[in-house]
Amino acid sequence: MSTRLIATETLTAALARMLAADLSPPATLLLDGPVGAGKTHFARAFIRARQGDLAEDVPSPTFTLVQTYDDPMGTQIWHADLYRLTDPSELTELGLDEAMDDAICLIEWPDRLDVVPPGARTIALLPQPDPDLRLIAMDFPGADRLAARAAFVVAAGHGDARVLPLAGDASARRYYRLPGVGVLMDDPSGSVAPFLAMTDWLRGHGFGAPAVLARDVAQGFLLLEDLGDDLVARVLADRPDLAQQIHDRITDLLVALHRLPVPGFVAPLDGPAMGDLAVLFTDYYPGADLPGLPALIADLHDALCRDQPPAISLRDFHAENLVWRGDAPLGLLDYQDAVAAHPAYDLVSSLQDARRDVDPAVEQAQIARYLAATGAEEAAFRAAYALIGAQRALRILGVFVRLAVRDGKPRYLAFMPRVWAHLQRNLTHPALAPLRDALSGVPAPDAALRERIAPCRP
Q1: Mean of the pLDDT values across residues 288-309?
Q2: What's the whole-model pTM score?
Q3: H/E run at residue 9
Q4: What mean pLDDT is predicted for residues 206-217?
Q5: Spans of all domains in the chain
Q6: How much is the mean pLDDT over the chain?
Q7: How far apart are the first and last CA of the chain?
Q8: Which CATH superfamily is domain 3-160 in?
């Protein structure tokens, strides 16, 4: 179904900049429309967005037929105007045919092409009675969301901002940086309202959640304060000398969170809920035919976690969702799935990280730090910690297999051996003997098993 919108020059350029953040080579964009419809205006905004600080003048290639540009990522961009093309065979002389194989090509007057390139995206621009407006029609996957993102940024007063993609996660959420403005969150999943509720709660208690600069809850868009690039994972990799200071700050953050009453708007993550989440493991992990696993985890949770009242858990709490800001409070990201859980939950999340190794001595030191600060009974806390660690590992292993098999994202399989090691270490706790016995026949995620999950993965 075609996406159509009436656009000002500002929205047209914002749409081009938004698309520039999404495309990677090879990609061909066909810009269709009559003289004066805004094709070159669109192409100019696209090219300058890709080039950033290196932006050049972008003249119309009406007479040269083709202009080429380079961006800082090493991508070559071809801007072609085929209005004066007399014979499609001239494309070979221009080199445009070969460029489509490895560059980003913006082609005005695409009707002059002999054959439309496979996978090409078409954007049609048509003038309107009001000379300041044009009709833009797009017919390719994601066009509706692209248009909505651009319209949101314009409505927020930042239609002239450059747009840069930020690394996403395993969810449907996408993030873009608007330099000097903030970070755009595009979340079609419906979790914007919980994110806002937690943001207000966290900021109200002095924690480092980002300020909300603009919002469209119905469509799933937020413009957030930019907390910077110093993710704790990167800082720990670059500055290992800061490891103790950073881990102490993370643990102290959890201690401070757990001293507060749990907000009433978060759901409980109790024994049955923990058991239900383990179904991801039994449904997806090869050789995990364990229908009784959810009930077993629920029973163990009820036995080992009942003596400690639930605390607020940000849940997706790890080094890539924390931002180091020196003496300022740690920046917090991706907390929309917060729950009321056993206090060990986020401590496990930070110390048994699927994406990076944590020194076992650091893990034990931080558990001891938490116990000393909270006065929690050590034996009971460590048993609950081991159970939560095992349950999280099982769920994560199931999620990684599902991402590979169902969603075509095999890169997460590389993390499975580390998560499996977390699982085995947690299972050594004597209180988890029933779970250890139940899992005894499940194969480890060695290279052969991972190859069975996603053959020929990149």
Answers
A1: 95
A2: 0.90
A3: helix 9-22
A4: 98
A5: 3-160, 174-224, 232-453
A6: 93
A7: 32
A8: P-loop containing nucleotide triphosphate hydrolases (3.40.50.300)
